[in-house]
Amino acid sequence: MHSVRWVLTLGWLLLIFSFFYDPITPMFTHPDNLASPFRLRPEIYLDPIKCVKIRETCMPEQPFAMGALMWWAMIVPAGIFILLVLGHEFWRRICPLSFLSQIPRALGIQRRRKVIDPLTGEIRSEVVTIGENSWLGRNHLYVQFGLFVLGLGGRILFTNSDRHMLGFFLIGSILCAILVGYLYAGKSWCHYFCPMAPVQLVYTGPRSLLGSQAHLSQKPIISQSMCRIVDPVTKQERSACVSCKMPCFDIDAEKNYWTELSKPGRRLVQYGYLGMVIAFYLYYFLYAGNWDYYFTGAWTHEEDQVSKVLDTGFYIYGHSLPIPKLIAVFITFFVLIAITFTLGQLLERLYRLYTGWRGRAVTAIQAQHAIFTIFTAASFWTFFSYGARPSLNRMPPMPLLAFNALIVLVGSMWLYRTFGRDRSQYERESMAASLRKQLHKLNLDASLLEGRELEDLSSDEVYTLVKVLSEFSQQLRLQSYTGVVQDLLEQNIVDATSSFDFCRKLRQDLQVSDADHFAAIETIAAMNPDILTTPRETQQSPEMHDAVTLAKTIAKQLRHRSRTGSDPSLGHNRDRN
């Protein structure tokens, strides 16, 4: 994958270079090159006037470099298709910007700060990360969506056809990614700054069509697109995670989805994105007064694009509106965003009313997820009704119809498998492996499983079977519950803080109290203190804070005894008592 990323990055840099010097591709777009599918073909696309108009003016048909057409009408649509089908994990592993943002880490020149080691009291340096509770950590979705809106507006105004402006824009993006990679560790560029990140959230949802499901894998593993390096000794991949975001989209995308479903800006991203898709393509018609301007790809070689930012912004059915293009673009964006944002919230309420009327009321979170899913499918279908069409419409009819059918099929399959999913199902699946381990310890009668093995049971069947434990002694229930919590912690499915809420339903089924959970944490802390010593920037309840503090204290004492040569086990019982 390292080599693949280098090849893709060098190819991208070569494309950027072509924006400044390209003596080759204009020959493919020459009007007289009848063998080229990339020339403008008015006999297929246009009205009898045989020209592409911007308002009442025909655009001259002349050779043009294809760099902008390749970028906007081929590469960008391919990225959207990859996100829904193969998921963010594939995209982030091949994304050149994500790759280039890691250059400072690879060179060992990231910004560092001095901190006091809580175990030894010594001063050491560490890389800087963006805190989850910082302003940017809480509000990054607003920032990224704002950059996304500005970027699309800038595309229409400056970079659609001006190859030099597009080249400078992409170079600036590369420099920004490298700068963020220097200032902050991990994938801070991807998580907190990249305008493409909201698009990834929309199209990935809880899981992509063919992407992996990290929560089903036996931990610990290097899952999905998490940060990784090759160990110089073992030559194997190992984690390079610095906890720049919890929960991390690159480690477990579905966990991130359910955890941040109510995060500030999440609805704006999901509902506003559909408005942006509609507004972006609609504006081509509102500006030129016809659809030929967009579907022929004439916008990729419009002359003097930058000088036209103050031209008439709206031309609707032969009537000009005296609003500059610079303002008209963002008026269109904001109106459509407001419409789809309002529509999304209204549909959430209507869906809850409908399910209540049908006698199967859903929670606000489940209603939000259902409407999110519908909006994602609508965004996907709307995007490919227009996105890439300047290239696709040059294909013969049968391949074009096949591609259209593929888009409908893929979107429908994603909608079908995502709509009915909920957080409880994810949590049951996440705990299934841990529950199986505890059930193995019980040596259950094989007749209870009807001849099947525990590994053959679905997550729902395993979870239901665990309820049998309620008939056993309190000691066995506590032992099983502690084993499950410890296994979840060892696999990094939860940390000490989030385990309380994550295991709430399990406590109810096993008739285990909240106080028993904290007792289980203290038991785990005494026996396996390293599990709980990973630093997390999370809010802790007073009880959980005491339990984690105990774990850290024990870990510090044990490690100190190990370094001083004394037997750590000598003080173990005293610490535990």
Automatic annotation (TrEMBL):
Q: Where is this region: Disordered?
A: 556-577
Its transmembrane ranges are: 69-87, 141-158, 164-185, 268-286, 326-347, 367-386, 398-416
- Superkingdom is Bacteria
**Alphabetically ordered keywords of this record:** Membrane, Transmembrane, Transmembrane helix
UniProt name for this protein:
4Fe-4S binding protein
